[in-house]
Amino acid sequence: MARKPVYGFGIVGCGLVADIHAQAIEAMRGGRLECVFSRNKANADRIARRYGCEAYTDYQSFLSHGGLDIVTIATPSGAHMEPVLKAAKAGKHIICEKPLEVTLGRIDKMIDECSKNNVMLAGIFPRRFNEATMVFKKAVESGRLGRITMADAYIKWYRTQEYYDSAGWRGTWKLDGGGAMMNQSIHTIDLLYFLAGDVSSVCAYADRSIHDRIEVEDVAVAILRFKNGALGVIEGSTSCYSSLGHAAEVHLCGSDGSIFMKDNGFTVWEFRKKRPSDKKIRDTLWAKAGVRGAGAADPSAIDYVGFQKNFEDAVRALRKGTTPLVDGKEARKSIEIILAIYKSALSGGKPVNLPLKRTPVRRSFR
Fold it and tell me: Alpha-carbon distance 323 to 263, whole Å?
């Protein structure tokens, strides 16, 4: 039997997210960490020493590293496009952090360049690979909810002022791309449309309520109409204090059932037509009382396991010549929804239809 190929990974970036990528690559099947790039030599050397790989401060030399097959992008959100375009031209496959970029035009350039050079572009949405998410998706696809009538997402998280002050790019339109919606809530928004279907229109309000020295929102509420006729709500915030953090939730209700998911567990799993498997799901995937959100109050508490599964999915797609679960076009959808929310909020709550033709003009909240 032929041995399955092992792909060489390289990380672009040097912060907390880069460390999570390195941990995921070390743990995964089908990949090994070859090298890391950062313009800051001390940061590149730190990761290289910790994970036993090569450090680079010159990007072209990094891309020329022998054995490099896949580049993971862990730079600030508004600094994704340039390294992606260069990696694609060098023939490297790419796995890029959320959001892919901060404008639709920049995202489309990334997708087009990867397509032109016949390389993979995958997004990073680790919550899609949670067991509860997969069980949820299967139930929806099998029609257990009947006609979906309501679909909601709740992300009531907290970030300190020190979090925003810790890096000059945080809370800026140019490099963060937005606030509570674009940076923190995007994972759960991705799950919402993944489970409920595509969105046709939004109307929204947003504000900067408790944080200083940022341009973007720390609280937002949107009403959504889905293409399948369902209505829904997204509540996203980094101003909901909790020392341990509130879990992110996705609720879907329909004519024949309801499912409420709280991080990687359920608080509601109820259907008109019962199945023997329902008891096992309640026994094994029931959210524990008092469950706290992963990364909801402390970004350093984010676990690498979902990233590992995300990376393994990309490697499987390369081996089989198929599309990863979250390719560039799929990862673009959550950003389009969020930008539509911003457009509505910045216009005083006017409805906005999707598809969105261009990134809205952005100005500071409050």
Answer: 26
Pairing of strands 148-156, 121-123: unpaired
Please write down the long-range contacts of 258-264, taking CB distance under 8 Å and 24 or more positions apart: 258/145, 259/136, 259/139, 259/140, 259/145, 261/132, 261/133, 261/136, 261/191, 261/287, 262/287, 262/291, 263/130, 263/132, 263/287, 263/291, 263/293, 263/294, 264/130, 264/131, 264/132, 264/133
What pLDDT, on the 0 to 100 scale, is given for residue 293?
63
- The Cβ of residue 200 has, within 10 Å, a number of other Cβ atoms equal to 14
Task: Enter the pTM of the model.
Answer: 0.96
Distance from C-alpha of 171 to C-alpha of 14, rounded to nearest angstrom: 19
The answer to whether 151 and 192 are in contact (CB under 8 A) is yes
Q: Give the DSSP letter of residue 360.
A: P
Convert the pLDDT of each residue in 81-115 to its tens digit: 999 999 999 999 999 999 999 999 999 999 999 99
List domains and CATH numbers for the chain: 7-126+304-327 (3.40.50.720), 128-297+332-353 (3.30.360.10)
Burial degree of 45 (CB within 10 A; 0-12, 13-18, 19+): middle
Q: How many helices (H) and strands (E) does the chain have?
A: 11, 14
d(CA 286, CA 353): 37
Residue stretches of the chain with pLDDT short of 50? none
Q: Evaluate whether 338 touches 178 at the Cβ level (below 8 Å).
A: yes
